[in-house]
Protein backbone atom coordinates (compact mmCIF):
# COMPACT_ATOMS: atom_id res chain seq x y z
CA UNK A 1 0.00 0.00 0.00
CA UNK A 2 2.82 2.35 0.98
CA UNK A 3 4.83 1.52 -2.15
CA UNK A 4 1.77 2.08 -4.29
CA UNK A 5 1.25 5.51 -2.73
CA UNK A 6 4.91 6.44 -3.30
CA UNK A 7 4.75 5.32 -6.89
CA UNK A 8 2.88 8.57 -7.58
CA UNK A 9 5.61 10.56 -5.83
CA UNK A 10 8.94 9.45 -7.34
CA UNK A 11 11.00 11.85 -5.23
CA UNK A 12 9.46 10.90 -1.88
CA UNK A 13 11.46 7.68 -1.50
CA UNK A 14 14.65 9.62 -2.12
CA UNK A 15 13.73 12.20 0.49
CA UNK A 16 12.87 9.48 3.00
CA UNK A 17 16.30 7.92 2.46
CA UNK A 18 17.94 11.29 3.09
CA UNK A 19 15.87 11.81 6.23
CA UNK A 20 16.70 8.27 7.36
CA UNK A 21 20.44 8.87 6.95
CA UNK A 22 20.28 12.26 8.66
CA UNK A 23 18.38 10.82 11.63
CA UNK A 24 20.90 8.00 12.07
CA UNK A 25 23.80 10.46 11.76
CA UNK A 26 22.17 12.78 14.30
CA UNK A 27 21.56 9.87 16.69
CA UNK A 28 25.17 8.69 16.44
CA UNK A 29 26.41 12.24 16.88
CA UNK A 30 24.32 12.71 20.02
CA UNK A 31 25.54 9.40 21.47
CA UNK A 32 29.16 10.31 20.76
CA UNK A 33 28.63 13.74 22.27
CA UNK A 34 27.17 12.26 25.44
CA UNK A 35 29.90 9.62 25.74
CA UNK A 36 32.68 12.09 25.07
CA UNK A 37 35.14 12.32 27.94
CA UNK A 38 33.86 9.22 29.75
CA UNK A 39 35.31 5.76 30.27
CA UNK A 40 32.66 4.37 27.95
CA UNK A 41 34.89 5.30 25.01
CA UNK A 42 37.72 3.11 26.31
CA UNK A 43 35.28 0.30 27.10
CA UNK A 44 33.90 0.44 23.55
CA UNK A 45 37.46 0.25 22.25
CA UNK A 46 38.02 -2.83 24.41
CA UNK A 47 34.96 -4.52 22.94
CA UNK A 48 36.17 -3.66 19.44
CA UNK A 49 39.51 -5.36 20.20
CA UNK A 50 37.70 -8.53 21.34
CA UNK A 51 35.70 -8.60 18.10
CA UNK A 52 38.86 -8.16 16.01
CA UNK A 53 40.61 -10.97 17.92
CA UNK A 54 37.55 -13.18 17.42
CA UNK A 55 37.73 -12.89 13.62
CA UNK A 56 41.53 -13.18 13.68
CA UNK A 57 41.27 -16.41 15.68
CA UNK A 58 38.84 -17.76 13.10
CA UNK A 59 41.15 -16.87 10.22
CA UNK A 60 44.17 -18.43 11.99
CA UNK A 61 42.14 -21.51 12.98
CA UNK A 62 42.74 -21.02 16.70
CA UNK A 63 39.71 -23.08 17.57
CA UNK A 64 39.80 -22.83 21.38
CA UNK A 65 40.23 -19.05 21.41
CA UNK A 66 37.62 -18.68 18.69
CA UNK A 67 35.14 -20.82 20.64
CA UNK A 68 35.82 -18.92 23.88
CA UNK A 69 35.37 -15.48 22.31
CA UNK A 70 32.37 -16.72 20.35
CA UNK A 71 30.72 -17.75 23.60
CA UNK A 72 31.33 -14.31 25.04
CA UNK A 73 30.15 -12.48 21.93
CA UNK A 74 27.02 -14.61 21.62
CA UNK A 75 25.69 -12.52 24.46
CA UNK A 76 27.09 -9.29 23.02
CA UNK A 77 23.81 -7.39 23.16
CA UNK A 78 23.30 -8.31 26.81
CA UNK A 79 26.96 -7.55 27.51
CA UNK A 80 26.64 -4.07 26.00
CA UNK A 81 23.58 -3.34 28.12
CA UNK A 82 25.36 -4.47 31.31
CA UNK A 83 28.62 -2.68 30.61
CA UNK A 84 27.05 0.56 29.40
CA UNK A 85 23.95 0.61 31.58
CA UNK A 86 24.80 3.92 33.24
CA UNK A 87 25.65 5.58 29.93
CA UNK A 88 22.54 4.19 28.23
CA UNK A 89 20.38 5.49 31.06
CA UNK A 90 22.01 8.91 30.78
CA UNK A 91 21.66 8.99 26.99
CA UNK A 92 17.99 8.05 27.09
CA UNK A 93 17.30 10.58 29.82
CA UNK A 94 18.97 13.41 27.94
CA UNK A 95 17.43 12.44 24.62
CA UNK A 96 14.02 12.61 26.27
CA UNK A 97 14.56 16.25 27.12
CA UNK A 98 13.14 18.87 24.78
CA UNK A 99 16.12 20.47 23.05
CA UNK A 100 14.34 23.77 22.47
CA UNK A 101 13.79 24.27 26.18
CA UNK A 102 17.01 22.78 27.24
CA UNK A 103 19.99 24.22 29.01
CA UNK A 104 19.86 27.95 28.42
CA UNK A 105 17.39 28.85 31.14
CA UNK A 106 18.75 26.26 33.56
CA UNK A 107 22.32 27.36 32.93
CA UNK A 108 21.58 31.01 33.70
CA UNK A 109 19.62 30.02 36.79
CA UNK A 110 22.56 27.89 37.89
CA UNK A 111 24.96 30.80 37.36
CA UNK A 112 22.78 32.99 39.56
CA UNK A 113 22.78 30.36 42.30
CA UNK A 114 26.57 29.95 42.00
CA UNK A 115 27.03 33.71 42.45
CA UNK A 116 24.73 33.71 45.50
CA UNK A 117 26.50 30.70 47.00
CA UNK A 118 29.92 32.26 46.41
CA UNK A 119 28.78 35.40 48.24
CA UNK A 120 27.44 33.42 51.20
CA UNK A 121 30.50 31.18 51.40
CA UNK A 122 32.81 34.19 51.17
CA UNK A 123 31.13 35.82 54.19
CA UNK A 124 31.88 32.75 56.32
CA UNK A 125 35.28 32.07 54.71
CA UNK A 126 34.18 28.64 53.60
CA UNK A 127 36.36 27.14 50.89
CA UNK A 128 34.61 26.09 47.69
CA UNK A 129 35.35 25.11 44.11
CA UNK A 130 32.51 25.15 41.57
CA UNK A 131 33.08 24.23 37.92
CA UNK A 132 30.64 24.98 35.11
CA UNK A 133 30.98 22.72 32.09
CA UNK A 134 30.81 24.21 28.60
CA UNK A 135 31.54 22.49 25.27
CA UNK A 136 34.26 20.09 26.43
CA UNK A 137 32.88 17.29 28.59
CA UNK A 138 34.08 16.83 32.16
CA UNK A 139 33.03 13.18 32.33
CA UNK A 140 36.41 11.89 33.53
CA UNK A 141 36.44 14.32 36.44
CA UNK A 142 32.83 13.53 37.28
CA UNK A 143 33.73 9.86 37.61
CA UNK A 144 36.22 10.73 40.35
CA UNK A 145 33.44 12.18 42.50
CA UNK A 146 29.95 11.35 43.71
CA UNK A 147 26.99 11.65 41.27
CA UNK A 148 24.36 14.13 42.44
CA UNK A 149 22.12 15.14 39.51
CA UNK A 150 20.28 17.81 41.47
CA UNK A 151 18.99 21.32 40.89
CA UNK A 152 21.64 23.94 41.57
CA UNK A 153 20.69 26.03 44.59
CA UNK A 154 22.64 28.22 46.97
CA UNK A 155 21.50 26.09 49.89
CA UNK A 156 22.71 22.85 48.32
CA UNK A 157 26.09 24.31 47.38
CA UNK A 158 26.62 25.78 50.85
CA UNK A 159 25.69 22.45 52.44
CA UNK A 160 28.15 20.52 50.28
CA UNK A 161 31.02 22.86 51.13
CA UNK A 162 30.19 23.10 54.84
CA UNK A 163 33.36 22.06 56.74
CA UNK A 164 33.18 18.52 58.02
CA UNK A 165 30.89 17.18 55.31
CA UNK A 166 32.37 14.29 53.28
CA UNK A 167 32.38 16.18 49.97
CA UNK A 168 33.55 19.64 51.02
CA UNK A 169 37.15 19.11 49.89
CA UNK A 170 36.39 18.30 46.25
CA UNK A 171 34.87 20.30 43.43
CA UNK A 172 31.28 20.36 42.29
CA UNK A 173 30.65 20.14 38.56
CA UNK A 174 27.64 21.79 36.97
CA UNK A 175 26.51 20.39 33.63
CA UNK A 176 23.58 21.73 31.60
CA UNK A 177 22.41 23.76 34.56
CA UNK A 178 22.30 20.70 36.86
CA UNK A 179 24.60 19.80 39.72
CA UNK A 180 26.10 16.69 38.16
CA UNK A 181 28.61 15.67 40.83
CA UNK A 182 30.44 16.65 44.00
CA UNK A 183 33.72 15.69 45.61
CA UNK A 184 35.37 15.63 42.18
CA UNK A 185 39.15 15.60 41.83
CA UNK A 186 40.59 18.04 39.29
CA UNK A 187 44.07 18.28 37.78
CA UNK A 188 46.39 20.84 39.35
CA UNK A 189 48.12 23.35 37.16
CA UNK A 190 51.80 22.76 36.46
CA UNK A 191 52.33 26.25 35.10
CA UNK A 192 55.55 27.55 36.74
CA UNK A 193 54.28 31.12 36.39
CA UNK A 194 51.40 30.53 38.80
CA UNK A 195 52.07 31.99 42.21
CA UNK A 196 53.22 29.47 44.80
CA UNK A 197 51.05 31.26 47.32
CA UNK A 198 47.92 29.87 45.69
CA UNK A 199 46.35 26.90 47.45
CA UNK A 200 45.10 23.61 46.06
CA UNK A 201 41.62 24.87 45.13
CA UNK A 202 43.01 27.75 43.09
CA UNK A 203 45.54 25.46 41.40
CA UNK A 204 42.80 22.97 40.57
CA UNK A 205 40.61 25.76 39.18
CA UNK A 206 43.43 26.89 36.90
CA UNK A 207 44.31 23.29 36.02
CA UNK A 208 40.85 22.26 34.87
CA UNK A 209 40.45 25.42 32.79
CA UNK A 210 43.83 24.75 31.15
CA UNK A 211 42.62 21.34 29.95
CA UNK A 212 39.04 22.30 29.11
CA UNK A 213 36.89 25.33 28.32
CA UNK A 214 35.13 25.11 31.69
CA UNK A 215 34.68 28.06 34.05
CA UNK A 216 35.80 27.53 37.66
CA UNK A 217 34.73 29.62 40.65
CA UNK A 218 36.81 29.50 43.82
CA UNK A 219 36.15 30.79 47.32
CA UNK A 220 39.23 31.00 49.54
CA UNK A 221 38.86 29.55 53.02
CA UNK A 222 41.74 31.73 54.22
CA UNK A 223 40.62 35.14 53.01
CA UNK A 224 37.04 34.58 51.84
CA UNK A 225 37.90 36.14 48.50
CA UNK A 226 36.15 35.03 45.31
CA UNK A 227 38.09 34.11 42.17
CA UNK A 228 37.11 32.89 38.73
CA UNK A 229 39.32 30.93 36.33
CA UNK A 230 38.80 30.82 32.56
CA UNK A 231 41.21 29.38 29.98
CA UNK A 232 43.98 28.91 32.55
CA UNK A 233 43.79 32.51 33.77
CA UNK A 234 42.49 33.38 37.20
CA UNK A 235 40.91 36.64 38.29
CA UNK A 236 41.05 37.09 42.03
CA UNK A 237 39.40 39.28 44.60
CA UNK A 238 36.09 39.94 42.86
CA UNK A 239 32.69 40.48 44.42
CA UNK A 240 29.56 38.50 43.67
CA UNK A 241 28.27 41.19 41.28
CA UNK A 242 31.43 41.05 39.20
CA UNK A 243 31.32 37.24 39.27
CA UNK A 244 27.72 37.29 38.06
CA UNK A 245 28.64 39.66 35.23
CA UNK A 246 31.65 37.55 34.16
CA UNK A 247 29.59 34.37 34.11
CA UNK A 248 26.74 35.95 32.17
CA UNK A 249 29.10 37.56 29.67
CA UNK A 250 31.03 34.31 29.16
CA UNK A 251 27.99 32.12 28.58
CA UNK A 252 26.07 34.77 26.63
CA UNK A 253 29.02 35.26 24.30
CA UNK A 254 29.29 31.51 23.86
CA UNK A 255 25.60 31.35 22.97
CA UNK A 256 25.91 34.16 20.43
CA UNK A 257 28.96 32.59 18.79
CA UNK A 258 27.30 29.19 18.51
CA UNK A 259 25.68 28.48 15.11
CA UNK A 260 21.89 28.72 15.12
CA UNK A 261 21.48 25.02 14.33
CA UNK A 262 23.76 24.07 17.21
CA UNK A 263 21.90 26.38 19.60
CA UNK A 264 18.75 24.44 18.89
CA UNK A 265 20.02 20.88 18.71
CA UNK A 266 22.66 20.75 21.46
UniProtKB/TrEMBL annotation:
Signal peptide: none
Domain of life of the source: Bacteria
The entry's keywords: ATP-binding, Cell membrane, Membrane, Nucleotide-binding, Nucleotidyltransferase, Transferase, Transmembrane, Transmembrane helix
Gene3D superfamilies for the chain: DNA integrity scanning protein, DisA, N-terminal domain
Keyword Membrane: yes
Membrane-traversing stretches: 14-33, 40-57, 63-84
Entry's EC annotation: 2.7.7.85
Record-linked SUPFAM superfamilies: YojJ-like
GO biological processes: cAMP biosynthetic process
Catalysis: reaction(s): 2 ATP = 3',3'-c-di-AMP + 2 diphosphate
Molecular function GO labels: adenylate cyclase activity; ATP binding; diadenylate cyclase activity
A UniProt-annotated Pfam family: DAC
Domain DAC: 85-240
Quaternary data: Probably a homodimer.
Protein purpose: Catalyzes the condensation of 2 ATP molecules into cyclic di-AMP (c-di-AMP), a second messenger used to regulate differing processes in different bacteria.
Similarity section: Belongs to the adenylate cyclase family. DacA/CdaA subfamily.
PANTHER family: DIADENYLATE CYCLASE
Protein name as catalogued: Diadenylate cyclase
Gene: dacA
Amino acid sequence: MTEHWFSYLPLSRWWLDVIDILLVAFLLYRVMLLLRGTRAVQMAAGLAVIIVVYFAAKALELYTLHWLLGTVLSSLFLLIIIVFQDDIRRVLTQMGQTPFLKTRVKTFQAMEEVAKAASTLAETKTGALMVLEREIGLGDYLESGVPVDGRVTRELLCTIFHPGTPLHDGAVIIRDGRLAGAGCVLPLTTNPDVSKRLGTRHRAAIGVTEHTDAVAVVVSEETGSISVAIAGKITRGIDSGTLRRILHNTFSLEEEERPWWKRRLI
